[in-house]
Amino acid sequence: MVKKHTNHPPATPGIPPAILGDSLLVPDTFTDGLPLPRMIVFDLDYTLWPFWVDTHVSPPLKAKDGGARAVDRWGEPFAFYPSVPRILAAIRTVHVPLPPSSSSSSSSSSQQPTTTTTPLLLAAASRTSAPDLASTLLKALHIPTTPLPSNTFGSSSSLSSASLTASSSKHASKRAYDCFDHLMIFPGDKKTHFRRLMEKSGVGFEDMLFFDDEVRNRNVEALGVTMWLVMDGVDGGVVDEGVREWRRRKGGREAEGGGAGKERDGGGGGGGAGGGGRKKSGGIRVVKD
Fold first, then answer.
1. Which residues have a Cβ under 8 Å from the Cβ of 71 and sit 6 or more positions away?
2. What is the distance between the alpha carbons of residues 1 and 22, in angstroms, rounded to a whole number?
3. pLDDT tens, 56-113?
4. Helix residue spans in 141-289 (DSSP H)
5. Labelling 64: which of 18, 27, 38, 100 has CA 20 to 30 A away?
6. Known active-site residue 132
7. Nearest of 153, 177, 205 to residue 67 by alpha carbon
8. Known catalytic residue: 189?
9. Catalytic-role residue among 22, 45, 54, 207
10. Which residues contact 245 (CB under 8 A, 6 or more apart)?
């Protein structure tokens, strides 16, 4: 089976990808003080990792190097793209402001306004036909979890590549599976995945940013989701591009009075041409609420 082309080198054996040098590990948009979506959603295959889990991976899987990679029954190694562990770790430190409630907006103007924040939610939406195997791999692979600086949109605190490098070098980590707030891993139209995400999280489609490598999955933009097309795996630069596109559209929606949950006609969005891919069918649902 010919594997999809990728320019990313394999992870260095014995060294977690999160510790390798990379100028695009931490997205700049996480610290620039501008708005962020309430939920970031990633596809899995050729988005967070450089393979099709239902085609290239043969169970059982065994974690190696403290969760930096896993090997299958043939000893083949599998890992995230190099920048992914730190990006996921960074997301877990970010807080975003909640929209003001009607009660707060009607309160006396003499009262000092307060901003309520909530964690930036992390989700996965995959249509793989091997959902159990994908979940097993997410449990085998780890991301750094040494306490990191609190990062709140609009605050003076900041999250830098240097601070993440220092923290991750201590090798504290947890299963990637446990870092996601929601996992929607099952075959089918990804509109279904996103409807489930909205039902479970209460986050409106217009506050979701989705990263995926397949053009066909842009159909979720009919719901109001912003999708950024991933060409060669996720890194900090890709995340920045997606966030900036979400900001551009969010500003336009607010000016036009757009709302959550309203399906719209198709849409553009994201990272250039390409995508394609195989049709996935069959399989068991894996849903983590």
1. 61, 62, 64, 77, 78
2. 30
3. 999 999 999 999 999 999 999 999 999 999 999 999 999 999 877 644 545 545 566 6
4. 161-168, 190-201, 236-256
5. 27
6. no
7. 177
8. no
9. 45
10. 226, 228, 269, 270
